[in-house]
Structure formats: C-alpha cells, structure tokens
Amino acid sequence: YYNSLRQRALLELGLHHLEGGKTEAAQAAFITIVREMGDEYTRLFEEAEFGLAQAQIAARQFGAAEATLTTMRLRYKDSAGYYPARVFYHLGRIAMQRQEHAEALTLFTESDERGAMTSDQRLDLWLAQSHCLTEVGHLDEAMLLLSRVINHEAASARRIEAMYRRADLYRRQGDRESVV
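and the corresponding structure tokens:
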C-alpha cells in the first residue's frame, strides 16, 4: 500500500516537473516508477510510461520517445481508449518530423480509430492529418479535414488555424476567389 502511494506521489511529481519544463527531473521520476514496477503493467505503470514519452518529446529526444511509444504500441495491440489513441498520435507526429507523411497518416488513422480524445486533441489530429495529406498531394482530402475542423462545434483557436490553412490550399490550387 505504501509503495503504491509513494509511486503515485512520484508520478505526480514527474507530471509537475513536465509541466514546469524540467524534462530531466520528469524523466527520472517516470523511469523510477517503470523500473520499480517491472512486468506489472498497471494503470500507474501506463501513466508513468506515457509521461516518460512526453518528457522525451519535450526534451526533443525523439528516438527515445519513439522507442518508448513503440513499446506501448506493442502492448496495446487492438486496444482502444485514451492512451492507445495518444500513443499512435505521438508516433505520427514523430513520423511527420522525419517527413514520412504516408507513415504518419497511417498512424493518425489508427489514433482516430482508437477513440477517446478531447475536442482539442481531435482537432490537432485532423490538422496533422490535413498537413500530411497536403504533403502527399491529396489536397481535396486535406481540404475536407480542414472544413471539418472549421465546422466543429468546439470553440478553439485551431479553427482559425484551419481557416488559414484552407485559404493557403485554395491559393495553391489557384482559386483566388475562395482565398478571400
């Protein structure tokens, strides 16, 4: 019981460090939890492992983050829910940074299918998908996703970003009337 309490406190400390930009301290807290739990894959372990990946991303250690996220991905197989969706999303973002847009699209689709996300996370996903679709030359599909973001009921600055990106796509297509 006390060990579980200590690990929960360590998780909260890691999350606090992550929010404060102290990525090394956050990684140390999360790694401690993961090592102590060994093969016991509990919700606490899952939170710590995901926190570790987030800290690695924040520290721009994309190779390490990809390894952590890939380990999580293998555990999930066909699971749905918040963490599986976020794991595939972050793997897609890493693929985007490597300019592997087709791979990123596959991962984003998997993320979308896994489910549970907040409205802002879903809008981020659609924006990332539209960027990849634009990069692989599927401008009409990218336009549809941007329209979905713009027409979403959530009040979000992402809607304005989508309007800007859609105007840029219209410009690329030579449709000057729609740009305005």
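(Above: one complete record from the training split.) The two ends are 62 Å apart (CA to CA).
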